[in-house]
Each structure stands twice: as structure tokens, then as C-alpha cells.
Amino acid sequence: MLKSLSGRLLILTTIFVMLAEVLIFVPSIARFREEYMMNRLERAQIASLTLLASDMIDPELEAELLRTAQVFNVVLRRDRIRQLALSSPMSQTIKETYDLRDASAWVLIRDAFHQLAETEPGVIRVIGAPVQDAGLLIEITMEAGSLRTAMIDYGIRILVLSAAISMITAFLLFLTMRAFLLKPIKGVVGHMQNYALAPEDARRIISPSAGVTEVREAEEALMKLETELTQALRQKERLAQLGQAVSKISHDLRNILTSAQLFTDRIEMSEDPTVKRMAPKLVSSITRAVHLCESTLAFGRAEEPSPTLTVTPLLRIVDDVVDSERLAINGADLTFTCDVPQDLHVRADPEHLFRVLANLVRNARQAIIATGKSGEIIVAASEQAGDWVIRVSDNGPGLPPKAREHLFTAFKGGARKGGSGLGLAIAAELVRGHGGTLKLSETSASGTVFIVTLPKGDGSF
Q1: Could you tell me which of 39, 68, 31, 46 has the C-alpha nearest to residue 135?
Q2: 8 A C-beta contact, residue 142 and residue 126
Q3: Are 448 and 392 in contact (CB under 8 A)?
Q4: Sheet holding 387-394, edge to edge
Q5: Where are the domains of the chain?
Q6: Tens digits of per-residue pLDDT, 47-76?
Q7: Other CB atoms within 10 Å distance of the CB of residue 361
Q8: For labeling, which of 22, 280, 299, 401 is most exposed (least CB within 10 Å)?
Q9: Taking every annotated instance into account, which residue ranges of this chain make up the domain Histidine kinase (predicted)?
């Protein structure tokens, strides 16, 4: 009970209401004491009117008047003359004198608690102003014990009433908070527990329904989180299935390419000039394909293998990429321009860098050919103080807005119909493996520019 939010809310509400009642009790008890003494002054003033009506009254009547007023003596001051109106013998001396004329709230509160703390019996003198301006002053003596007893009785009634009000208020507030806050929170917790049983099931995603603004905002945030998580889990499942399929295909494709590699060894022995010129490129392409299949199988087991950094001439890699892409233009009006210095060497994994540039150039080629217009792809490179910069640009149609949103996300960044969106994701991952960056510099209806930045590191070759 004490650990639950509802239990703590009930207890805290009771405590705070009791605290408020205590703050009310302090001035209340002082006010009760003032009214009690003022009542005695009024009674004494009424009793003294008998003396004004007749100079001589019967002693028994005087005693009855004093008993009725619950005082010992009554002193009136009229026309600056102090006159003992009524009197009776007192068994005790006067302990305290209290003047109620123009007494401040602080003085009344102080005197009230002083009165409660005083346990010894005694007599007190009370001074006040007569009602209806029937004189300048009225002074009475009365028993202090009866006043203290009345104050204690009143205080007990106030405390009991305060406790009852506190419990009723706390209970009503508890019911209200339970209906408007605790119940919706429990509903959100229940939705979370239900969703956790099968997070892939979109039917278990919470639908915001709370009337309280804060709880509804929490439900909306939870719905967004659950929706993204469900999509991520589905994507992960699809990726796992795709990974298994790719691994199987790569395994068989590697075996086929290995056989083709054996045939190319014999082709290289041909005396035909054209064959001699094309055979090395064919061997190189098949070798890269075999390595790619092996890397894919390794990735299916763990992750993309780390790059093996070597110093290599960049122009050779770019030429291989361009030669491969020229074979795939199928007569389209497309030109390739290579603006890479002959002596520019980079420290990178040649196979990884080939795949990066091949993906960028292939995407550009496919985009331009899809328009049916002529185009140009430019691969340029430069060396800067701390890194090498490779720029792949084209004058194609540019990337659509949807492709820009998830450009480097697998299966989401595809720019053409039928594309998987894997090319740029793979390229970005390979560049990150070198400690570099791949970014989209610009894209518009006049073309697209990608920039690959490879850090030099310590600069030693």
C-alpha cells in the first residue's frame, strides 16, 4: 500500500489537509478565547445594569447575577469614575490581567497558548470596552480553569472535525485522482505489457484515448515509439531473411565464379589480340566477384570485414570502374570523364574503394540512361592537407525527395523503381570503415554530386 502511488497519494493528501487544519486551528482557538471572555464581559455588563436601576439590591440577587455571568467582580468606569458594580469574595489572588481593547492577533494567539499551558487554577482579570458605548471601561475577574477547560473542549472538537474533513477530502481526492490519473496510467502500463508480449504485432500498438492532456501526450509518445520499434523489428526480420538468402546465393555463385575463373586462365593463353586485351579485365572482374561473394558470406556470419589498407594508385581503380560501366551503357549517349592525377596514391583497401566508386558511378549511369537523354559522369580526385577527396558528379535528373530522406539507409534510399537501396548504404559503410565520410554534396535537376573523403591519418606511406 505504501509503495503504490495511490497509497502514497492518500497519505500525503491526509497529511497536507491536516497541516492546513492545524494552521486554521491556531487562530481559531485564539478567537474562541476572545469570544469567551467578551461573552463574560457582556454578561457582567447586563448584570451591572441592575445596580444602575437601584442603588440597593438584595445580596442573594447580587450573588445570583454574578453566578449567571460566571464572574467574581464587575467594575464599571463611567464618566471617568471607577465604580465596583458587583462583587463577591475570591478564594485566590489574581494571576494575570488581559486587556482586550485593541489587542493584536499575535497578542491574542500568544495569550491563548499561554492560557492552555497554564495548568494551575487561579483568577484572571479581563478588561474590555462596554457594548453600546455604555461607559469607558468594564473590568471583570473570572476563574481561569473554566476558560482553559472550555478552550480544551473546543480544541478537541476542532481537531476531531479537522481529522474527519481531512479523511473525507483525502478519500474524495483519491477517488478523483484514481479516475483521472491512476487509471489512465495503469492503462498505459497494461498496453506496454501487452505490447511487450508481441512487439511485431501492429495491432498491439496503443491508441491514445486519455482525456488528461499529460497522459495523452505520454500515450502519443508511446504510440510513436512502439510504431518505430515495430517497423524496426520487421525490418530486422526482413534483413535477417535477406541475409540468409544472400548467403545461400553467394555460396553457390562463388562456386560458379570459381569455375569461370578456371576457364579464364585458358582464355589468357589465346593468341587473339582482342582476347589478350580483354582477358585481364575479365579475370579481374571475376576475381572481384569471387571476393565479393566471400565477403558477403563473411558478412552473413558477422559483419563487413575490416579494410586492408594499402597504398594504391587511385587512377587504376577509377579506370577499372569506368571500363566496367562502359560495357553496360548498351549504346546510350553517355560519356565518362576521369580527372584523377596519374601520381595520386591513396591509402585504402582497393577492393572496398572499387565497390564504393562502382556503386556511385553505377547509380549515376542508371539515372542518366533512365531519362533517355545524353549525359556525362565525371570522377575527379584531389589531395588536401589531411585527406584525399574523390568527387563523383553527373548531369542526370537528380535524386527524388523521398530518396534523400533515407539516402544511406538500406532498403529505404532507393532512387529508382526496382532498386533495393543497398548500394549507397554499402558504400557509406565501406567508407566509414576507412574512417572517412560519404556525403551528398548537391542534387538538383541539373545533376548530382557525391563526395568521398578519406583521411590520411599520420600521413606515412
Answers
A1: 46
A2: yes
A3: no
A4: 334-339, 375-383, 387-394, 447-455, 437-444
A5: 5-171, 306-461
A6: 777 666 555 566 776 677 777 777 888 887
A7: 22
A8: 401
A9: 248-458
